[in-house]
Structure formats: C-alpha cells, structure tokens
Write a structure and sequence with these properties.
- Helix content is 26%, strand content 34%.
- It contains 4 helices and 8 strands, in the order E-E-H-H-E-E-E-H-E-H-E-E.
- Strands 1-2-3-4-5-6-8-7 form an 8-stranded mixed sheet, sandwiched between helices.
- The longest helix has 14 residues.
- It is globular, with a radius of gyration of 16 Å.
Length: 189
C-alpha cells in the first residue's frame, strides 16, 4: 500500500493506493460510468456494468499487470491500471496506463498517487515503455499529470473520435520504464 499526503490539503487528506479488490468494483464502475457518460477521457459511450468491470480487472491481473484503487477518507476515489499496449508480440515490452479520478476529487493528489504507484510497480516487471493514450487535447489535467511523471508528448491523433457531439483528438505520451531501451530486454521463455 502506498500513501501520499496532498501538500495543500488538510492533514487528514492522505491518499492510500492499494491493489483493487472485487469489493471496490462497484465504486470503480461508478467512477468510470460518469466519465463514459460525461467526459472525453474514454471513447466508450455506454458504461459497462459491474460484472464487466470485474472481468476487465480479472483480465489485467491474469496478464500479470496491476489494477490499483485509491482511497481517501475510507472511500474509493480513483483507480488506475496497466494493459498491453497492442496484442502483437513485438509490443510485449510496452504497456498502456489508465487513470481515473472520481468527479469532484481532482486536484487532491489522487491521480498523482495512482500514477506514481502504477509506474513503480510496472518498473518491477519486464516492461520497458509506458504509453498514455489521452482522450481530448484539452485534457490539461491528464497531460500535466503524465508530464510530471516523466512522460513526453509523442503525437496527437486529430479528430480520432466523435463523442458528446464533437470531434475529439487523442494525445499520445510515452515514458521509459526501468532501463527503457538502453539495454535489450530479458529473453522470454
């Protein structure tokens, strides 16, 4: 478990990051459903139900990747996870991160704590690159969050999606994990 106190917050505000459990999935589904219906961070348009979110978490865990939950004052207020970037074998050392924070909980260090913990855990594995696929070039919060954690802008896909009545860009950011591409990866069995 990782904890992070928000510098400008009251001393009681400590974000606790831990592995997400099955019991967290109703809260996580509600966080995601809000973003699906009202935001541009995901291009999904119909919120998945709790069973589907459970299945997605199980798939992440089965792949040996991490799915984390953030708690603040005993309540799940965000989550993050890593997935394979693409299915082709040559991409096996590259993963994609996702970070979601509950509505009204932004700017409290939740996203920062989640992303820092996710990066730290992923650096312990065989992965060498982490990609952020950020919906909406105007998503300043997510872009700044990733930049603060060493991601650099590597491209923008213009008008890649159409959601909530408008065309939406996708921003691509990337950071190395561990030694990155400085040395070859470990051989895979």
């Amino acid at each position: 478990m990782t904890s992070l106190s928000h510098p400008g917050a009251a001393s009681t505000e400590t974000v606790m990051v831990r592995d997400a459990t099955a019991a967290d999935m109703a809260a996580i589904q509600a966080i995601y459903a809000h973003e699906v219906l009202h935001g541009l961070a995901t291009f999904e348009e119909t919120p998945p139900d709790v069973d589907e979110m459970q299945a997605r978490r199980a798939a992440v865990r089965a792949a040996g990747l991490h799915y984390l939950a953030a708690q603040l004052d005993g309540r799940v207020v965000g989550y993050s996870y890593a997935t394979a970037y693409r299915p082709r074998p040559a991409y096996r050392h590259t993963i994609e991160d996702s970070v979601y924070v509950a509505e009204g909980m932004q700017r409290r260090g939740v996203g920062r704590a989640l992303l820092a913990a996710l990066i730290a855990r992923c650096e312990q594995g065989p992965w060498r690159q982490m990609i952020a696929v950020i919906g909406d070039r105007r998503n300043d919060g997510s872009i700044a969050l990733h930049a603060a954690h060493g991601f650099r802008h590597v491209g923008t896909l213009e008008a890649a999606g159409f959601k909530l009545g408008r065309w939406v860009d996708t921003v691509l950011m990337q950071r190395a994990l561990g030694p990155g591409n400085a040395i070859p990866p470990r051989p895979t069995p």
